[in-house]
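Give me structure tokens for this 74-residue protein.
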Amino acid sequence: MDIRIGIVNSPRELSFESSQTAAQIEKTVADALGSDAKFIKLADDKGKVYIVPVASFAYLEVGSEESRRIGFVA
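Here you go.
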């Protein structure tokens, strides 16, 4: 799953791949926003943990679970 997180007042975004499903990520973010949590924690495929303050979210984009095609498609 490809995840991109836009940060307020920052020209760059966080971008990483995660083994979590789109539903799991959506639930984590929704729970954090609904409970007034200070931050969320997301992990990538390599074991890195990203801790992002909820107040600094500009956007969160979750990619599709479909694998990418390789080569030319007719």
